[in-house]
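Task card 7
Instruction: Convert sequence to structure tokens.
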Amino acid sequence: METTKKYHIEKNTVQETLIIPLFGRKVCSEHFPYLFKDDEAERICNMLDYDFAEKGKKMESAVGLFGALEVAQRQFDLAWEVRSYLSEHPAASVVNLGCGLDDTFRKCDNGKCLGFNIDMPDVISVRKELLPPFNEREQNIACDLNDFSWMDKICAANDVKNGAVFFASGVFYYFKTEDVKNLVCKMAEKFPGSVLVFDSCNQRGAKLMTKTWLKEAGIKDVGAFFSLENESVLKEWSPLFKSVSSKSYMRGYRDIYKDVSFFHKLMIKFCDKSVRMRIVKICF
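Output:
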């Protein structure tokens, strides 16, 4: 019987950072099947030559399981916004900024929209192996988000009048505030009538992150990197922003508070009040 070749993941590489949210969604599916079911995350994890024992042990803790909940809930929230936009703009471009191994487009595909997954060349090379485009309307673009040429490629592939919904999942924490501002203002200029949704936290939350995965990315000066105390400050960035709003990360789209343990209830309250984990929406 022929065995399927496994894709090797090196420790302490960009490849390893890609599988953390993927593994989180898999764990969440296993422990909270009544809330989330992600067969694709399980399929890809089974394709990998990687020892998940250490990460699995960490995620089996109460704190680790909450991290898995966060990752899965974030994808649910962003997918909700994508579907909402597509309900009024069925032929829109669905643009995944810093896509990693996220499969939101195929979860939201309505048969008419176009999907664009954008990330650095080394990330896209991994994605092509593990999560290649599943139809002719989805394509990967290997490009630094700060190189705005990717916007021209989307404009060339789909009429701007059809609309666009952009989303970034766990991405902007790695960007300096000025870079996020330049990026979003350029998007507003190029794609009038479009929407951007992304997750954010305040500086306290960013400082907590430096003890974990931001530290691994070499980010030390948190103050220079993107965080939000209140999304209303974004309105000052550009007159092209028609509206700026936000919702609770864990309770704003589907309130899972009643479905989790007492400890996780406390964690949800902490995330809402102390670190302001939000899903932010900017309409251009």
